[in-house]
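Limitations
The structure tokens in this dataset are predictions for the assembled complex, not deposited experimental models. Users should treat interface geometry with appropriate caution, especially where small molecules or nucleic acid strands are included. An illustrative entry is reproduced here so readers can see what is and is not provided.
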Amino acid sequence: MPEQQTYNVAIVGATGAVGQKIKKILEDKEFPINELKLLSSARSAGKEETFRGETIIVEEAAAESFEGVDIALFSAGGSISKKLAPEAVKRGAVVVDNTSAFRMDKDVPLVVPEVNPEDIAEHQGIIANPNCSTIQMVAALKPIKDAYGINKIIVSTYQAVSGAGNAAVEELYEQSRDYLEGKEINAEILPVKGDKKHFPIAFNALPQIDVFEDNGFTFEEMKMINETKKIMHDEALNVAATCVRLPFATSHAESVYIELDREGLAVKDIWKTLEAADGVILQDNPQAQEYPTPQSAQDKEEVFVGRVRKDLDNPKGFHLWVVSDNLLKGAAWNTVQIAQVLTERGWLKK
Amino acid sequence: MPEQQTYNVAIVGATGAVGQKIKKILEDKEFPINELKLLSSARSAGKEETFRGETIIVEEAAAESFEGVDIALFSAGGSISKKLAPEAVKRGAVVVDNTSAFRMDKDVPLVVPEVNPEDIAEHQGIIANPNCSTIQMVAALKPIKDAYGINKIIVSTYQAVSGAGNAAVEELYEQSRDYLEGKEINAEILPVKGDKKHFPIAFNALPQIDVFEDNGFTFEEMKMINETKKIMHDEALNVAATCVRLPFATSHAESVYIELDREGLAVKDIWKTLEAADGVILQDNPQAQEYPTPQSAQDKEEVFVGRVRKDLDNPKGFHLWVVSDNLLKGAAWNTVQIAQVLTERGWLKK
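Predicted assembly:
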């Protein structure tokens, strides 16, 4: 048996919520790594991390960090990606970027490996990982679209606080403790750290994720709308989204309405399609109270679907409840999956 | 000035979450009461309650309790209503029932006073208070329907735990404390006390409110669908609902998609209609991050609407975010409003 090819991999944002999950998955999945570089901001540089039993010291990310790197997995915010991803590419690395920096660029494939893996072959050095709430939705809907056609999607999300980072999770727990002890609640991070006002998330719901656009939709909602069309290769697809932040740390849930191109289908047809779908697990038995919840999906790779119902009025309409761990399939796992496709199909070289 | 007419009023379920709110509102609004009877199960009978500075001893509800009562406000569960509401009517009382026992009965008006007050005149002794999640939605949508026509509603709810009663709120807080202290979580009430399985609600979301029907929708979802058509007097109206329980105590929020009968309308047309609507407060300024949340709507009578957006694809489509205190407008306040209409319009007698 020939020796397996190995790669030099860098994680940018290695100490963040997603970066930590990426490191763990690379280890768990035995990704063929020669050398792993852990890169971060100056603030976290110098930290010691463990990988495969060895200590790695976190370094401050800079252009030169990417010398000799084959694959760079970015998850340190859009501005870092905009600055350093081109530097990584210039030095011969292929970048899988987990921020929104390049997602809508014409030359950048936006990929969910179960949905459009072949788009990876077209990369010019950067491949974008979609928004967490988009990934789980398209993973659940693409097999249905392939089988029966979908022309309209209306989604309302139930999104976890970890999507806003580790500090937001700490804020949720601190606020929750203060609330339960009858203390005053301090809000400094959510809904959006850089926005003007902050509201409590503990025992509350915030109908704002990311900043508002001029059309009244938030940037998160527009990400779901635009990214879904790009990943599905269907600009004519109607997509509407309402994105809401809720007081739990992990897993996004989504209430999704779809209109198929065809009439005459039943819940069991949707079930059959989802049961055969890669990376999707059907959990749908109302009489036994079987359905996914944020807690049941936590720490799992797959996208879980339940509550499939036929609309009572529109013969082409169906409703679904889609849940997945936003840090895994929604971020770290999808990123590593893209890296796996790159290496396994020999698509690393442009 | 002639002496104001006063009435003998009974609250059935007086020690429950809604019963307590009803008592407070009757006091705050100076409802013209001669004598107030507080009725409950045997378990709570004998408790002392205060009303207008006087002590009232809670009595066990029985058929004879309603002798001499003019208005009986029921909020003690469907089985109590089914048993005792007819007894109250037999003794001359008019019943306002806050359970689902009679809502879909042909002879029972189902009323939101801002929407269909005139239906109260048709009562045969019982008037039903709609489900909490229905009330706030129809209060927000009826003025829009009157102005522009609505033919389709798709709603996803974000519902508070207090809709399942005081014990469910205690469970939420106890689970939250245990979770934050790293202890094992005990689930005995939610999603539905009488159902087979129970799941944690703390730091979670449960896509089940009330039991499942054969069509895969929950009873809560079917309540929203059927009650909305009845209150709107529009059996042809398309309504679909997905109802989700979330970890906060008070106020339901709803992500609502509507399709109007007409094209060519703008967000400002919807704003204008909502600004002029009774019992509705528009809170919609995205650039200033103004929108209602469960916490901002708590302890308020009105229905709050924000996040009004025009659908990006369907020229007749709009999205809204509707929030209201589920124990007030969703229950106690709507109940007292019905009683007010009964007395003020002289509709007590059949």
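Some entries come with short summary sentences. For this one: The two ends of chain B are 28 Å apart (CA to CA).
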